[in-house]
Amino acid sequence: MHNTGRGRSVRSPQVVEDILHGVGDPPDISTREVSSAVNVPHSIVWRVLRDEGLHPYHVQKVQTLIPAVYAPRVEFARWFLQQLAAQPDFSAHVLFTDESTFTREGISNTHNLHVFF
């Protein structure tokens, strides 16, 4: 057998433990950040996470629907449908935006936020 030039990474129990601890604190850390912190290749981090049954989940913030806001929402939906009936391209003239959370630390953009569960 000859040397192909590719090194084999050893996934010791300590490395696996370090990787799992890395994605748990905080859970929104990237696999590249864990790779850098544990000093192992990025592919090893993904392999360990896959073997442990961990997958990235996209965080999706939703508003809580309470009974008090049900009627105004239905009223708005009916109004919107009336506007569409009167002017079929009405929705093209409406500006919809993503909501953002503003904190002292800055703007929280959950579009690219993934958490491992």
Keywords:
single chain, 117 residues, mainly alpha, two-stranded antiparallel sheet, 4 helices, 43% helix, 10% strand
What can you see in these coordinates?
This is Transposase Tc1-like domain-containing protein. The chain is mainly alpha-helical and 117 residues long. It has one domain (13-103). Helix content is 43%, strand content 10%. It has helices at 13-24, 31-38, 42-51, 67-86; strands spanning 56-58, 101-103, 106-108, 114-116. The protein has a two-stranded antiparallel ribbon with strand order 1-4. A two-stranded antiparallel ribbon has the order 2-3. The two termini are 41 Å apart.
User: Which stretches are poorly predicted, pLDDT < 50 over at least 5 residues?
Assistant: none
Class from secondary-structure proportions: mainly alpha
Strand coverage percent: 5-15%
The figure for the number of domains is 1
Overall morphology = elongated
Strand order of the largest sheet: 1-4
Organism: Araneus ventricosus (Orbweaver spider)
Protein name: Transposase Tc1-like domain-containing protein
